[in-house]
Design a protein that fits this description.
The protein has 13 helices and 18 strands. It has about 375 residues and is an alpha/beta fold. The chain has a seven-stranded parallel beta sheet, with helices on both faces. It is globular.
Length: about 375
Amino acid sequence: MLHVVVLGAGRVGGAMAKDLSQDFRVTVADRAPSALARLRGTGPDTRLADVSRTEGVAEAVADADLVVGAVPGFMGFAMARAVLEAGKPLVDISFFDEDCFELDALAKRQNLTAIVDCGVAPGCGNLILGDLSRQWDRITSFECLVGGLPVVRTWPYEYKAGFSPIDVIEEYTRPARYVKDGRVVTLPALSEPELLDFEGLGTLESFNTDGLRSIIKTFPKVPSMKEKTLRYPGHIEKMRMLRESGFFGKDKILVGGVEVSPLDLTTALLFPLWFMEEGDEDFTVMRVVVEGEKNGQRMRKELNLLDRYDRTTRTTSMARTTGYTCTAAVRLLAKGGYSRKGISPPEFLGQEPGAWDFIREDLARHGVVFTES
C-alpha cells in the first residue's frame, strides 16, 4: 500500500491525513505532541519530527512513497526543497513566498513530480484556468474571488483563521500583483476594496491580495487577471490601520529597554482572537470567472462554491476545501493520472485531460460542490 507522509498536523494537515488514511497507509509528522495527540485513533499513524529543520524533514519522509506538505508558508520552501532532495514526490499547500520554479531543476534532476499551491486558492482557480485553456483557443480574462469566514461575526475583527494565522498576515502585507491590459501591476495588499453581494450570504468586501502567484508566469498572454480576497465589510480598514501603524513590522524596536518585533507583539494579541475553537463553524465562498474565445465565439464560464463546516465530522470548511483539493491530487497521482516531472503549479495539472474533472468529482464526493454557468 502506498505510504503517504503528511508534514504538518494542523487543522488542514490533520484533515488531509484522516482523509488519505481511507485509501493509503498514512503517517502525519509534526513537532507539536499536542497536535499529534488529536489525531491518534483517527486513522493515520503519528510521528514526532521537527519539520522546520532540513534534517527533520529528511528523517520524517525517509520511508515515504509520496509526501504532502502542510506547514506554514514561511517554512514551505525549505520543506519542499528538503523533500525533493530526499527523492520523494510532493503535493503541497504551504503557500510559500518564494518562486516555486526555483525548485524545478532539482525536481527534474531527481525525476520527481511536485505539485505546489494545491489548495482551494491558490489551487482550484488555477485548475479551472488550466482546464479551460486546454479547451478554448484563447483566454482573455480570469478573476477569482475567495474567502473563508466564521459563521458567527464577533467584534472587533469578525474573523477567525481557518489556516495558519501568520499566513493570513502575509496576505495583508505582501504586495499584490495582478494583470491589466497585458501588464503586471503591483499594488499594496488590501487595496481597491469593492462591496459584492453573494446569494445566501449577503454583502462581503473584496480586496487585492497576491493570489495569482504562478499564473502570472505560466499565462503571460492573458491580458486581464486578478484574484481578490473576501471578508465581512469593515475588516479591510482595521487591517490597513494596523499595517500602516507598523504593527506588522518585522524589524525590532526598543520598548522600555527591551527589543521587540511589532509583528511578534501583534500576533501574540491577535491570534487568540482569531483562533478557531473546536466546533466553531465557518464557510468558504469562491467565484471564478473566465472569459475567452473558441472557434470565433466569445466564451464565459462562471463557477461558484459555497461550502460550510461539516458538523458530522467536525471539520472546518477551510480544511475541507483546501485539504480535499490536495488529497484529490494525491489520488490522481496514485492512479497514474498525472506524471509530469518538475514543479507543477495547479494550472499545469488542470491542462492534463480529465484532471480537473477527477478532482472536482472527488471534491463533490466530500460534499464540496462547484456550480457553474
